[in-house]
Design brief:
Layout (H helix, E strand, L loop, with lengths): L2 H10 L4 E4 L6 H6 L3 E4 L23 H13 L5 E5 L3 H15 L7 E4 L9 H18 L9 H27 L5 H9 L5 H17 L10 E7 L5 H9 L2 E8 H7 L11 H10 L11 H15 L3 E7 L3 H16 L4 E6 L8 H15 L2
Parallel strand pairs: 1-2, 1-3, 3-4, 5-6, 5-7, 7-8
Helix pairs in contact: 3-4, 5-11, 6-8
């Protein structure tokens, strides 16, 4: 089911719908408020054209910003709320642009925002600032929901997300361990992305059992192992080309996957909602968009490469993502010093079906790894 059809179904069910900007919104909070939250990334297959947005935004923004803007402007009358935070320069400025675009359609969309400090979250003043941001967010949302938010309900939502994140991580481990194609993981993750948490858990549990009981013959050939990185996962066709070249995907540093699933504060380690999100963002998996995590990012990636016994690192880049542009040269040099070659593949909003040009580069990269 595509997002447009899913949205129509939610409207028929009278769900309260919140569209959230990526990358790392407070999903547990929205769930505890009975809001159906849809994080707007990975919409490339949902959008046929982005020609209508260019009177609102520049051509040189990433596909994520283009697609979410187009989708909201086309579907703003079907949603109830919009949430954003300062994930990057492009996304930081979009809420005002989108609100003005919707006003032209005589639709006024209630929107909510937090500012995530990008300097160290271990300092007292930034800790208090972030907690205040969440106190304000909760008080701003409460007039729009039927029941007052409670810590008990929030804690139940946290445990549901913990179970869901653990299942997603466990499914990847199982697929890699048993030598299944990594395409199975990406397809499983994408197939359940619009389901409720409870239905996602049921779906993933069935997938886990399916792959656990499936007979597979493990490869006896020595293959080169690679990790995928980037904001969004590669299209299954690109993974197919990677595997056809003789490489095996053994893990990911994808923002939509590992970076989002990595950490949930332990049960009993927080006493308030504000305390939970302070720990959540303090211990978040390092990401170029979370500037306060950059010092720990490369050491953690090196440790991941070591744990996964990876020989290579493939970066699935978003065209016009300035945070990735800044990181790639540094990361490539650091990994080269560890004798781990990196391949940088860049994708734009227009790269939908023609993936064959990538094959030459992937095949050449595979040759480099196999002759090491």
């Amino acid at each position: 089911m595509n997002l447009s059809n899913h949205l129509n179904n939610l409207n028929e069910q009278k769900d309260k719908i919140l569209f959230s900007f990526p990358l790392y919104p407070p999903l547990e909070l929205f769930h505890s408020m009975d809001l159906t939250t849809l994080v707007l990334w990975g919409l490339k297959n949902e959008i046929r054209s982005t020609q209508h947005i260019y009177k609102h935004i520049q051509d040189y923004v990433c596909s994520i910003a283009k697609h979410l803007t187009e989708f909201i402007l086309n579907n703003g009358n079907k949603i109830d709320f919009l949430f954003s935070y300062n994930a990057c320069d492009s996304l930081r400025n979009l809420p005002e642009i989108i609100k003005e675009g919707l006003k032209e359609q005589d639709y006024h969309l209630p929107s909510f925002h937090i500012h995530l400090p990008m300097n160290s979250l271990d300092r007292k003043y930034t800790e208090e600032y972030l907690k205040d941001e969440f106190t304000h967010l909760i008080s701003s949302l409460e007039p729009f929901i039927p029941n007052k938010i409670s810590f008990k309900r929030f804690s139940r939502s946290v445990e549901l997300f913990r179970e869901l994140r653990d299942l997603k991580k466990g499914l990847e481990d199982l697929i890699v361990k048993n030598d299944y194609s990594y395409i199975n993981y990406i397809k499983s993750m994408e197939a359940c992305k619009y389901l409720s948490n409870e239905n996602q858990i049921r779906f993933l549990e069935s997938k886990y059992k399916e792959f656990l009981n499936k007979n597979t013959s493990k490869s006896t050939n020595k293959v080169k192992r690679v990790i995928l990185s980037g904001i969004l996962p590669p299209p299954p066709k690109i993974v197919h080309i990677i595997e056809e070249s003789g490489l095996k995907v053994v893990g990911n540093d994808i923002a939509k996957y590992t970076r989002s699933l990595h950490y949930t504060p332990p049960k009993g380690s927080f006493k308030t909602i504000e305390d939970y999100y302070l720990k959540f963002y303090q211990n978040h998996f390092p990401c170029p968009t979370l500037l306060y995590t950059t010092d720990s990012r490369i050491p953690l990636l090196k440790e991941m490469i070591k744990q996964k016994e990876a020989n290579g690192f493939i970066f699935i880049g978003e065209k016009f993502c300035e945070y990735e542009y800044f990181e790639i040269p540094i990361l490539e040099k650091q990994l080269q010093d560890e004798n781990v070659p990196m391949l940088d593949l860049e994708f734009s909003a227009e790269d939908i079906k023609n993936y064959e040009p990538y094959r030459t580069r992937i095949d050449a990269y595979s040759e480099i790894l196999t002759t090491k």
